[in-house]
Amino acid sequence: MVILHVSAECYPMAKAGGLGDVVGALPKYQKKLGDESMVVMPMYATPFLQNNEWDVIYKGNTHLGDWFFDYTIIQEKTNQLGFSLFLVDIHGLLDRPKVYGYNDDQERFIGFQVAVVNWLSHWTSPPDILHCHDHQAGLIPFMMKYCFDYEVLKNIKTVFTIHNAQYHGAMGWDKSLLLPRWDTWKHGLLEWNNSINSLATAVKCADKVTTVSQTYMHQLKFQSAGLESLFEYEQGKCVGILNGIDNELWNPATDPMVPFHYSIENFEEGKRKNKQFLCTKYNLDVEKPLIVFIGRLVGEKAADVLPGAIQHALDKTNCGANFLVIGAGDTATESALNYLIQLYPGVYNTFIGYDEKTGHEAYAGADFLLMPSRVEPCGLNQMYSLRYGTVPMVRDTGGLHDTVTDIGDEGGFGIRFLHATEEDIVYSVERAIGLFQDKEKMQAIIHKAMSIDHSWESVVSIYKNVYQSI
User: Residue 210: which region, alpha, beta or left (left: phi > 0; alpha: psi -120 to 50)?
Assistant: First the structure.
């Protein structure tokens, strides 16, 4: 089976969140299962582009409204990712350093999708499955079926995966002029709430729709930013498939980004050394439990609750724990978090920003990972933390519900709480301190956590079943 993934992100070429991690790993494991799996994405001006060699494999041209533009498809030469990676170069539109955040993002990603469909129409042997990810690729199933110039593609089966349904890619009807000539009788497939809605269009037009956890699939019928009735109506073709993680990349025994390697056999010494490194680096107390937050500082992640929750937790427990916050986002939240440094020296610090190495160091050195998310379709951070023997503290929602069992339940290995509130977080911190002080139980839970298998090997066969079903 030949699968082509279409995505705005793919690690290590470009990553803004979990989408990049998934698209950077799933194709590799699909190839190990025996399928031909590839990725096409925009050509951003990132270090990975500049530090690797590329072959030009196709040059084409097409229209974006009145603009007739040239595009180039390049391919990474060495196959170092374990699968073929193709980039779409549209000069002046995609070749910028950031993935998102430009005023013309709608035009950028429509142009990307039009170029992909145009390129695909020239393949002599098309893929069996076109697997589109999130709204930045959401118009492709519509284009393949209802754009006159691309009727040759209408029999290719499409799968659409929703990594975060809070972002719809909605736009005004004036943007319809940017699409290739299309059957206007089908305008209802583009429309939702008087706008073109890329996410809704993909759900309507794709042959199969997946989300990144079973619980999140269920929640979309009640919480999807206005698309609840659509998910209720289309539930027959929707399925939740829990993400996996790349166990080769995320492995404390071999990870080049952590100072001291360890495995399930010697995690006690390895965790201790990495914690000492982290505490020294950020001026924290190695004798106290270390709780880290790693993620975007946005409302979705309940980051706005963090400053008050951390302050109350430190006050209530008489500074009985360390906190390290790693992330960037809302500037007011960043300022509030930075302000706490002067109030709690020696037990609290921040790293405003994110780089991959800092994250790996934190997973290896922390005792607990805090995820109070309001919305978490799957969550990969808690799976990384389990892999590195760091106990997850999570709000009971989405994929966090599917992957973390509370220590109060039989076989539990994490701390779950119901609400993204200061009170629930403070109570969970008290539970974490109590667990940390029970050394024997803490070691048993770490051992349990590190033995859990969330690898892609256990997931790719489920995707293959979805492909074969269509």
Answer: beta
* 453's tokens: 């298998």
Answer for the pair 325, 347: CB distance below 8 angstroms, yes or no. no
8 A C-beta contact, residue 41 and residue 88: yes
3-class secondary-structure state, position 35? coil
Q: What is the pLDDT of residues 115-171, one digit of tens each?
A: 999 999 999 999 999 999 999 999 999 999 999 999 999 999 999 999 999 999 999
* Sheet of strand 195-197, all strands in order from the earlier edge strand to the far edge: 170-171, 195-197, 191-192
228 shares its domain with 299: no
| Mean pLDDT in residue range 203-210 | 98
Number of domains in the chain: 2
Q: Give the range of the structural domain holding residue 163, as residue numbers without chain letter.
A: 2-244+457-469
Residue 261 falls within a domain, yes or no? no
Distance CA 379, CA 369 (A): 12
Residues in the chain: 470
Number of Cβ atoms within 10 Å of the Cβ of 148? 9
- Whether 257 is in a domain gets the answer no
From 94, 139, 101, 136, select the one nearest 117 (Cα to Cα): 139
Asked if 433 and 462 sit in the same domain, the reply is no
Same domain, 218 and 303: no
> What values do phi and psi take at 363, rounded to 5?
-60, -40
Distances (CA, A) of 39 to 68, 83, 115, 452: 25, 8, 14, 29
